Amino acid sequence: MPSYPFHTTREDVRIPLPDGTRLAARLWRPVHDEPVPAVLEYSSGRFTDRTAAEDARRHPWYAGHGYAAVRVDTRGHGNSDGLPGEPGGDQELADGVAVLDWLADRPWSSGRVGLLGVGAAGTTALLLAARAPDTVGAVVTACPEGGHRLGGALLAAGLHTRLTALIADAALPPDPRHVGDAWRAGWLARLESLDPPVDAWLTAGEATVPVPVPTFAIAGWGDPSCSFVLRLLATSPTARALLGLWPHGLPEDTLPETLRWWDHWLRDIDTGALAEPALRSWTGTRWTGEEAWPSPDVREIHYRLDGPLRTAGTASDDRYVLVRSPQHTGLNAGAYVQLGRPADRPPDQREEDGRSVCFDSHPLPEPVELLGIPTVRLRLRDDGPSAQITARLCAVGPDGTSALLTRGVLVATGPDAVVELAACAATVPAGHRLRLTLSSVYWPWVWPTPGAAGYALDPSRSALSLPTRHLAADVGAAPAAFAAPALPEPLDIHLTDPLTARPEHVTIHDIGRHEWRTELSPATDGTRTHPDGLVRDEHTVTAYRVLSDAPLSAQARTDHTVRLERPDAGWDVTVQTRTQLRCEAGHFLSLVQLRALEAGSVVFAREWRHRVPRDG
After folding, report:
1. What is the pLDDT of residues 404-450, one digit of tens each?
2. What burial letters (b/e) apply to 195-214, b meaning 16+ CB within 10 Å?
3. Is the pTM of this model over 0.90?
4. 3-class DSSP state for residue 509?
5. Average pLDDT of span 458-482
6. In which element (H, E) is residue 37 found?
7. Alpha-carbon distance 167 to 600, whole Å?
8. What are phi and psi of 346, to 5 degrees?
9. How many other β-carbons are positioned within 10 Å of the β-carbon of residue 546?
10. DSSP E strand boundaries for 85-206
11. Over the range 580-599, which residues count as b (16 or more CB within 10 Å of their CB) and which as e?
C-alpha cells in the first residue's frame, strides 16, 4: 500500500432508508477524529464483484487524502434490500437523497458531500445533484450516458446490449456471504418484480440532464458523452472539462485532478482548480487549453458542397444529388462506446466511403485543427417521407487512407436539415483532404428507416461548417501535465480467459443470401476469481444482421450469461438473458427472455414481448 497523508480503514455498512429498506455500502475513511467530507459513488454495479477492481483502487486513494469515500449499491442490486426500479427514476433518486442526508449526518462527516459517477452512474450523479443542490457541493462525472436516440433516430448500437445487462444486473441475487440465508427469498422477489423498460427506452426522446452544481466532466474523444460535455461548459460558469484519448470510464491519471476539484469545493482549499482552463483537450498532437467555451480561438469555416467540397457529380443534369445507400452501410463504424480494445476504433473508411456520396476538398495547404461540434446544412428535395441522414467527416491521406474524424445522424422531416456531428478534436495535416460523406443508412448504429428510397440534396444550397482552432492560439501557454497517482495495488482477481475466446468483432458476408452479419464479444468475458473466493463467470455475444436491400430485415440480439459461485459454500447461481429486437414498417418488436438457475436447476423463467410504434 503506498504512503498517503492519512491512514485509512474500510468497513461494510447498511444505510437505512425512510421506508425501512437498507442499502449495502462500502466505506473507506481516514483514521482520525476530525470530521471529513464524503465522496459518494452511487451505482447499480455490485461493489462486491462487478465494480470491485475499480472501487479498490480509487476509493482507498480518496480516503488516504482525507475523504470518506462511499460506494453504495442502489435498491434491489448487489446486496442492497428491496426491489430494483427504473435506473435514474424517482425511487432511485429519492433513495439517493436519503443516502446523502445520512452521510451528511454522520459524526465523522463535515456535512459536505461530493458525487462521483461513471457512465450511467455519471448521469445519475447529475440528476441526484439536481434533487439535492444544497447538500451536494460538487460533482465529478465521467462519460455520462445520454438517451437512446441520435438525432431523432433510434440507436441500435448497444441499446439492446445495455438493456440485457440492466436486466441481468437486476436479476442477480444477493451474496449469502454478506446477507446470510435471506439471499434466496430476496432473489426470488427480485426476479418476480422484473419488468424490462423496453417501451420507455424505445419511445424516449433526446436526453437532457441538468447541471445545478459545480461539475468536473471527464471523457475520451470518441465517447458519446463529448457533445454533452461541451454543452455543459457553455451553460455553467463553474464547470470544467478534461477530454483526452481515453476509453470509456474514469482514467486513473485524472484522479489527482478530481482531488483538486473536491479540495476546492468541499474543503475550501485553493488548489487552482478554477484557474485551470474551462476545457483542457488533446487535439491529436498536443494538449490545449480554452479559457472559456465557446472559445474565442475557435471560428467556423464554411465549405459549400458545390465549391470547396465537390462530389464526382450526378448521373443526370438534375442539380440534386441522390443519396441511396445499401443497408449494410455502417458496418465499419467501430464501437459506439469505445472500451479501449483494438476493434473498438473504426478502421479505414474507404469501404464505407464507397457506399456513400463523397464530397472532397483539395489537399490542405496547411494543417487544420478542429475543436468543437461540426454541422452540415443540407437542402433536400421535398418530395418524400422523412429522411435518415448520416454525415461522416474523414481525413484522406495522400495514399488514399480515409480516417474517420467524427459523424452524426439526423432524421430530417423537411427540406432544410441541419446535421450536428459529434464533438471532436483533431489535427488534419497539410496535404490531406477533407471528405464529407453522406449516406441514408448507418447500421448497426441506428435502426434503418422502413423505406430504401434515400433522399436527394442540392449541393449549391448545402454546406459543411467546421469549428477551426487558430494554430497559434496556445503559443507561450504551459502544456497540460497529469501526474499518475500512486494507487493501491490492484485487487488480486484471477482472470481465466475462455478456452475458445470469440473474436472481438467479426463480420460475415453471405453472398448467396445478400446478408451481412456482425458479432461482437465484450472485454468482460471470462472467469474472475475474487480474493474472498467468489467466482464470477461471464459470457456475452451481440449479433446484428441485415439484407443489403431490405431495411425491414434488420435484427439485433444479445445473449448474456452470468454465473456466480462460492465453491467452498456450495453456492452456485446463473442468470441467462436474451434480448432480440427487429422492426416492421410501423413498429419495433422486442423479445426479452430470462432464466435463473440454482445449482443447474431452473428456478425462474419468463419472457416479455413488446410491440412499440416507431413514432413513439
Report:
1. 999 999 999 899 999 999 999 999 999 999 999 999 999 999 999 99
2. ebbbbebbbeeeeebebebb
3. yes
4. strand
5. 86
6. strand 36-43
7. 20
8. -65, 135
9. 28
10. 109-118, 136-142, 149-150, 153-154
11. bbbbeeeebebebbbbbbbe
